[in-house]
Structures are given as C-alpha cells and as structure tokens.
Design a protein that fits this description.
By secondary structure, the chain is α+β, with helices and mostly antiparallel strands. Helix content is about 25%, strand content about 30%. It has three helices and six strands; from the N terminus they run E-E-E-H-E-H-H-E-E. Helix 1 runs parallel beside helix 3.
Length: about 130
Amino acid sequence: MMQILQPPGWAKPRGFANGIAASGKLVFVAGQIGWTGEGKWEARDFAGQFRQALRNCIDVVAQAGGKPQHIVRLTWYVTDKQEYLSSLKDVGTAYRALMGRHFPTMAVVQVSGLIEPQAKLEIEATAVVP
C-alpha cells in the first residue's frame, strides 16, 4: 500500500514525489556506487555509473522480495553538480529503463568527495515491500 502525498495547491514535482505514505516491510539500502556487484567498474561516465548504482539498489531491494515501484526514497550524493546537470538526458533515459514512471521521494546533494575515488555518485534507497 503506497500513497503519493501532494499537498493541495503545491506545484506538481517533476521527477520525484514530495512525500509517500506506505505500509509493509521496510528495506534500507546502503549507499551504492557505480560498480558491479563484483566490485568492477564498467562505466566511467556519470550516466553509466548512475545506471549501475540504481541497478545495485534495485537488486538489493529484490532480495527482500521488492520491485522498483516499492522504492519510496532515493538520496543521491554527486561529486560534480555540473557533470550531473550535463548528464540529465542520459540519466533520465537510464532512470526510466530501470524505474519506469515511478518517482519516489528524492534528494540530490553535491558532496566534496566519496570514499571510492572513481565514484561520481552514490545512491541510498529506502523501500517498503508489501
């Protein structure tokens, strides 16, 4: 059970939800970066790393019986705001391929660096599996 929360009179957000109410099994996914589950880098570009990091989040949620539409929150940590902005078209394509038209609550935060030096972003996820 999931309900998108949109206060009356608020502009409809593009690409995210302002809030979600849900009930079920809570799944918390640690920060995922753009390497494969085996720890191998297959993409060096921002959009490629984004695709892999989001795929990693979805794979962890699947271990709890969940699907992409059960993700209720994504927090992205990006190391370069301009690289993120210039990659939005390819990021959007990758996002829709993995998540469809499901837009959970999201935050994107620029950080000065990540522990893994090759990582361009890290994504945390929260899911509620019915």
